Amino acid sequence: MPLAIGIVLGLAGCGLQVPADPNGTLERVSDGTLRAGASPDRSLIEVRGDEVSGAEADVVEAFASSLDARVEWTVGSEEQLVTGLEEGDLDLVVGGITDETPWIDRAGVTRGFADMPGADGRNVVMLVPLGENRFLSTLETFLDEELG
Amino acid sequence: MSRFGRTDLPDEQATDLRKAVKIEVFTICYTTVTILVVALVLGNSQAMKTAWVEDILSLTPQVAFLVALVFVRRKPTRNFPYGLHRAMSVGHLVAGVALFVVGATLAYEAISGFLSGDHPTIGTIVLFGSSVWLGWVMVAVMALIAIGPPFYGRYKLKLAKPLHNKLLYADADMATADWHTNAASIVGVLGIGVGLWWLDSAAALFISVGIVWDGVRNTRTAILGLIDKRATTYDEKAVHPLIAEAATMLRGLPWVADAAVRMRDLGQVFHVEAYVVPVDPRTPVSAYESAARAIAALDWKVQDTDVIPVSVLPPEADPGFGREAGRGSRAGASGAGPAAASERGSDASAGATSDRLKGER
């Protein structure tokens, strides 16, 4: 057992980043495209035609530009978007989702951010693909700095 | 505190029992703190969840011990003529079954999580103003709380022997092996960290198999006791040497032609039925009574002794020698030769405490 810990720590020491993305989401998004899903919300996400705007959309745009990525929006219902996350078609889902979300078993959920402009006291979270822990941690760290 | 049923405990056992109660209470407090701390950092790791549930389950032997002790100490009554010693075995059985059922459930969760390819998600927390990956906190917590159990486990192991308490022994045994759980959960979390998501399921399976195994062993020990298996040592490794000692001592009495005993473990004390074939069928009752007192004087655990005159020994009663009884035990090697035994027997009175009573052989 100590051997196993040693091997894992050794792997971590040899340039492997901890935490890592098993499916490499962060690496693919950086300098590329952030495929974001949006579900309309009265104060956070506004959808007009193909245009997605609103306070939470601005935060996603800012996150993308921190990774030198551009955002490609998909609009749909929450279930459609979560299925998109599961099937690897989306990297991020937003839309006034709170930390009470029932999608916890089908998506990675960020911490709640009550300081999101327009959150109206809700603890707003974003959804990412399950187990993409480097991407999730990078997003949370960004949100801490942006909204904290 | 200083008695088990009808048995007044010798000083050593009374002291050890007080120590055992203290360490069990301490363990419950320690484990409660670890359960609360781990709950704060649980996250989505199946290995962490499994280790956490194991922590909760590890409280059952201690609670069972303390609850059973209340009953075990009561004197026998008309209603409960053998005392309430079995309360300890019942507690042991409950703990064993709980471990088995929950362990099996956790093993199932680990396997189904692996088969459905669940990628465990662990994000960050804000610690002292900066975002830290929660996995590092999990590793630190699991490493820190692994320190306690080996120490109190070894301490309990030392108490289980003189008290002849199998529940305490099982509890101690699990505590000394507890670091396996912590190490496995650390491997699982670090596996998630480097992107090997399946290591989490593997670690969870390893931990839950350990819980199932503990459950099987404890259930088995408790059931063997409850269906009156011949008394064994506290660790189940050998036939209890008191069987051979009692039989040998009886055969050493001048009026006894042959003797054999049935000895069952009621929990921490034994119930002894000693069958003797007298040389002369007119042997007075007082001889049987003094033989019973002589057996009681052998050890604090054998105060509940009946000496029964028979013309032929029942085949299932253990004569305390030969292949059946001698395997692994130190029958006859403890200095209780027939002559010495009968000498001691003649002036021994029930409950007498001599040096030979101290400690379990």
From TrEMBL, chain B:
<dbReference type="InterPro" id="IPR027469">
    <property type="entry name" value="Cation_efflux_TMD_sf"/>
</dbReference>
<feature type="transmembrane region" description="Helical">
    <location>
        <begin position="93"/>
        <end position="111"/>
    </location>
</feature>
<keyword id="KW-0472">Membrane</keyword>
<dbReference type="InterPro" id="IPR058533">
    <property type="entry name" value="Cation_efflux_TM"/>
</dbReference>
<keyword id="KW-1133">Transmembrane helix</keyword>
<feature type="compositionally biased region" description="Low complexity">
    <location>
        <begin position="328"/>
        <end position="343"/>
    </location>
</feature>
<feature type="transmembrane region" description="Helical">
    <location>
        <begin position="131"/>
        <end position="152"/>
    </location>
</feature>
<feature type="transmembrane region" description="Helical">
    <location>
        <begin position="21"/>
        <end position="44"/>
    </location>
</feature>
<dbReference type="InterPro" id="IPR050291">
    <property type="entry name" value="CDF_Transporter"/>
</dbReference>
<feature type="transmembrane region" description="Helical">
    <location>
        <begin position="56"/>
        <end position="72"/>
    </location>
</feature>
<keyword id="KW-0812">Transmembrane</keyword>
<feature type="region of interest" description="Disordered">
    <location>
        <begin position="312"/>
        <end position="361"/>
    </location>
</feature>
<keyword id="KW-0813">Transport</keyword>
<protein>
    <submittedName>
        <fullName>Cation transporter</fullName>
    </submittedName>
</protein>
<dbReference type="Pfam" id="PF01545">
    <property type="entry name" value="Cation_efflux"/>
</dbReference>
<feature type="domain" description="Cation efflux protein transmembrane">
    <location>
        <begin position="28"/>
        <end position="226"/>
    </location>
</feature>
